[in-house]
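Incident log, structure service

09:12 report received: a user says their structure output differs between two submissions of the same chain.
09:20 pulled the input from the user's history:
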Amino acid sequence: MQIAWSPTQLYNMIVTAPEDVRDGLRHFTRRKFLRTLCRFSTDQAAFRDPVVATLITLKSRLQRAGG
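09:34 re-ran on a clean worker, output below:
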């Protein structure tokens, strides 16, 4: 069963993100938030860093949602 993620659900995931991510994305509009995630790229090997892992997860969810 595949879960469909809406942009609102992605945006609401910020609540559980590490403080560094929340501070950086909290004041973005949903549109700017989604554009920022679309442009985000990082070394996948850095996934042990909680901030990077959160951003990778958010971008993955966005891609699954068709964004």
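09:41 both user submissions now match this output. Likely a transient worker issue. Closing.
09:42 reviewer note: The CA atoms of residues 1 and 64 lie 13 Å apart. The mean pLDDT is 78.
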